[in-house]
Amino acid sequence: MSRLAQDMKKLAHRADGSHKTVHDREQMAQRFAHHLLAQNIQVTSTSQLKARHIAGYIHERLAQGISLHTLQNENNRKKALNVCP
Fold first, then answer.
1. What HEC string does 18-84 produce?
2. What is the dihedral of CA 24, 26, 28, 33, to 10 degrees?
3. Domain span at 59
4. How many Cβ atoms are within 10 Å of 83's Cβ, its own excluded?
5. pTM of the entire structure?
6. CB 41 within 8 Å of CB 2
7. CA–CA separation, 65 vs 48, rounded Å?
8. Is the dihedral of CA 14, 15, 18, 21 positive or negative?
9. Residue 10 resides in a domain
10. Is residue 85 included in any domain, yes or no?
11. Is residue 72 part of a domain?
């Protein structure tokens, strides 16, 4: 697991919410970290994330056929983790 994924998982546990909410945040963090790894974006902490990284992730998810509402929910999970710049 990358340092970024570990950092985001730690933030997911610190954020309030039920076990399901925390689990969903962890899953989103894993997908996001995997996307960055696949794009060869070498980010090691959430403080290094830029808006273009998140925009690229959203564009990829849209290309996969994920609905806009689902992406809005994922973006809200990122905000809960203080990942969104």
1. CHHHHHHHHHHHHHHHHHHHHCCCCCCCHHHCCHHHHHHHHHHHHHCCCCHHHHHHHHHHHHHCCCC
2. -170
3. 3-80
4. 22
5. 0.80
6. no
7. 28
8. negative
9. yes
10. no
11. yes
Centre a 10 Å sphere on the Cβ of residue 25 and count the other Cβ atoms it contains: 24
Model confidence over 28-71: pLDDT tens digits? 888 888 999 999 998 888 888 888 998 999 999 999 999 999 98
Q: Are 7 and 45 in contact (CB under 8 A)?
A: yes
Distance CA 67, CA 85 (A): 23
Contacts of residue 85, defined as CB under 8 A and 6 or more positions apart, other chains included, come to 49, 50, 51, 54
Contact 49, 8 (CB under 8 A): no
Q: Report yes or no: 25 and 80 within 8 Å, Cβ to Cβ.
A: yes
In one-letter notation, the amino acid at residue 56 is: G
Q: Could you give the number of structural domains in the chain?
A: 1
